[in-house]
């Protein structure tokens, strides 16, 4: 559009626009946000694709993530090393998946990853218990927690292995009326 | 082991040498795939290339022969083809990422074709190549949907783009080459243009920061109201653009100025008071004889140098307003239809959904987050209790009696409000004949209507407590009743207005005679005074001409007054109901016996349902009145703009997050459905008046015609070529029109049916709108 910015080359911006659900303005804004998390670490010039990762602790302090009980899991799911260190690419990826226009299937995949605490590609009882405790700040009694987890697995488990595989999860979540609107972060 | 981002080949080399054994299975897969990806890497190629070598060598020989012929284009194509063959080999080595398994066959086929001299690319190869290019293009279009890491996406994207670029040229062989290349270039330019336009459009979207702030404080359901408000503002802005550009501006620039003809001048009798503030506030005086209202416009067929046909434009803009609104609402509904995917019944995945979709990721404020934790806990406990108990129906007869009683009471109140409005309209007609009116008497009608809209819904809610329905069903009833209230009020108002219009039309008959009589008298006086029967007398001063009652302007004035009073009432309600309340609670709390903040009255919560319904009904009134008062749309645009800022400020400064934070659902389709219904209901009166009522004889763009739509007939007769006239007369055959209408109706039905998939979703959305409804089951006795 003719804006003279020197952070990215035009090809890079076009590539980002193709690879994410963001427009040019939003990508530049994202870079601004990434930069302000650690102004001394993050370079302003990304034209030669610098190598720069920000640690988990910085990212989860963003106002958009601060109050989220799953913030650590979110950042870990999008990081390559699984430890929560995000490069700018992964940062953009994270917000693109969580944006309003991302497709339902894509969101389901990442939701599954987020709620899979022990990263074994199944949502087993321990994962559900952890999720529930985070959601209710441990206000429920252990019996209630047990009941809820049991019921959830009963409802969604299709292949009867007493844990939720991705297929089970996807089948359940795509019918949820609220999923798209709650699994959304605006940046 | 931390992954480092190294550019280009270096990265690829490292990955291949030591693929890290990482726990994350995804990463492993990615690593594995990456080792197969690189194009320029040498180590990967040997396995494939050994097979391919003879072919590529032969290919190269053929190409070299061609090059020796010295034709520049063929050399270029040859180079492209060589790299084509090479990449074909490479892509053959890829697995899952690229769904291109045809390559297996293509490499074998190329063997047989390598002997051809002239057209080295046979038809089959071309077709295959085209398919491949299409696949790559599809990949590029869908790459953002793939659940890959960003780096992998970027790499694949770059490859796919380079592949497509190379091939687009190669494919343009044969007769249509230049045309194909041109087509490709235009497609690229079009895509680029679309992208730039999208960027421009998103850069223009206003109030993003504001809405985000509201969202993080109040959750997505409150913010959805503001998003809806912004959408309405956009639609009204477009409507304003049409009206202003095609109706108001031409009249102002090219039409006759104020004071030149009777309809544009304040009558002599009113001229003393025409500038008074009170008169202007009533939209009489100078306001009445301005571009704001129908009566100002001249019925001259063409105006100005450009021969602009104003009456035709007026009619078309009036109809186009409805058409555009319809199109926009349906398009938005269709877009939102696939968002609401829930067609499961209530009990299907209760716990699972609560577990995985109850947290609202938009929340960024700790107070809201605390509220949300509390409400999630409560909701789980309710479901657990539900699960552990059976619900028993208690004394069904009492319940039925109470429900019947409640319905009777509500029907009575609906009837009462309808009668009240009728009575007030009749009274206002009497008032119109008097001059000494207090402010209240002048604005009684509008005040009463607005107050009814404010008072009745809470009344209905309290009566509905008797009924003891499940909250979702109770909400359906409540909404139905509010709808009936609004419709009843509006249509009573319209009927009363029609009475007035008919009286005015009768009056018109006698005034017309009187004015012709007065004109004759004026000429007679003039000739007598001058004693010269041959000179033409100057026309009567416009201010002295006897005027007809001009019912369209009267209707327009009524609608404008209604809208203005609606604005005033809603702003005042916010000021008093929210702001004053917050100030009192905050400052009186220091010296009050009980805790004002925790108990009664405490701070207000944002009333989503009230505000949305108000917005929708207001838009209905605008649609109805816009035909008679072109300025109304402009007033509405100003109102929406100021409303946005005012309400954003009010919500942030005076409201607290809802105690029971609702399921945040995308309620937009519900609002859109309401809007669509209101659109049809407001279309009816306008169409009726256009079709049946005769326009006033001396004001407005249709004066002098028997019916308003005669303008179209006139245009067809005079402006369009003769054959079109006969064409239209054939097309106007009822035998053609009725099937066409039925077809359209059927398409509408189909459209609606496609949208009914989302009605269950819509019903779930409704729960948002109902405050203070707990889903706790009724207490079990014993």
Automatic annotation (TrEMBL), chain A:
Keywords in alphabetical order, please: Calcium, Cell membrane, Cell projection, Cytoplasm, Magnesium, Membrane, Metal-binding, Repeat
Write one Gene Ontology MF term. calcium ion binding
Q: Per its UniProt entry, which superkingdom is the organism in?
A: Eukaryota
A cellular component term, taken from the record's GO annotations:
photoreceptor outer segment
Q: Where is the EF-hand domain?
A: 103-138, 144-179
Q: Does the keyword Magnesium apply?
A: yes
Subcellular location per UniProt equals: Cell membrane, Sarcolemma; Cell projection, Cilium, Photoreceptor outer segment; Cell projection, Stereocilium; Cytoplasm
Q: Keyword Phosphoprotein: yes or no? A: no
Q: Name one GO biological process term.
A: calcium ion homeostasis
Residue ranges annotated as transmembrane are none
- The molecule here is called Calcium and integrin-binding family member 2
Species of provenance: Dicentrarchus labrax (European seabass)
Q: What would be the name of the gene that encodes this protein?
A: cib2
TrEMBL record, chain B:
Which UniProt keyword terms apply here?
Answer: Membrane, Transmembrane, Transmembrane helix
> How does the protein's chain sit in the membrane according to the entry?
Multi-pass membrane protein
Task: Give the compositionally biased regions (Basic and acidic residues).
Answer: 39-49, 65-77
What Pfam families does this protein map onto? TMC (PF07810)
Listed under GO cellular component are: plasma membrane
Q: Which gene encodes it?
A: tmc2a
Lineage, top-rank taxon, reads Eukaryota
| Family label | Belongs to the TMC family.
This entry's Gene Ontology molecular function terms read:
mechanosensitive monoatomic ion channel activity
UniProt name for this protein = Transmembrane channel-like protein
- Identify the InterPro entries for this entry: TMC, TMC_dom
Q: Could you read off the lineage of the organism from its UniProt record?
A: Eukaryota, Metazoa, Chordata, Craniata, Vertebrata
Q: Where in the cell is it found?
A: Membrane
Q: Which residues cross the membrane?
A: 237-258, 312-330, 404-425, 478-498, 621-641, 670-691, 727-745
Indicate the segments forming the TMC domain, all copies: 550-665
Region called Disordered, residue ranges: 1-20, 34-85
Q: Biological process GO annotation list?
A: detection of mechanical stimulus involved in sensory perception of sound; vestibular reflex
Please name the source species. Answer: Dicentrarchus labrax
